[in-house]
Design brief:
Elements: E1 21-22, E2 31-50, E3 55-64, E4 67-74, E5 82-101, E6 107-113
Amino acid sequence: MVDGIIEAADFKHYSAKRVIWIDKTPNQVPDWIALEFKQPVTVKRIVLYPVENSLKDYQIQLWCDGKWKTVAEADNATGEYHEHRIAAIKTDKIRIWITAVRGAYAKLAEIEIY
């Protein structure tokens, strides 16, 4: 989920012209977004750019041995971006499992995976 705009400040004045992910269940959690790659990739760092500080509590999960494995989590996360460094893991799927939000919706402008 990358459009080349990586500065969270660019999203302070969100407009309909921006492409972002918004969950479809207002005021209900959990919410999630998953990315699937054509071939396995090695993941060592994940950076999330929430819109309007919407992500509060969440888990970052990787698909390992046929099930989701939580590799990082946040409680009461704040800030323009959230960076998570993990031990290198090879996977073909990543999921952000959101359990609490600020406002009615979970909103993400960018997910970077390194």
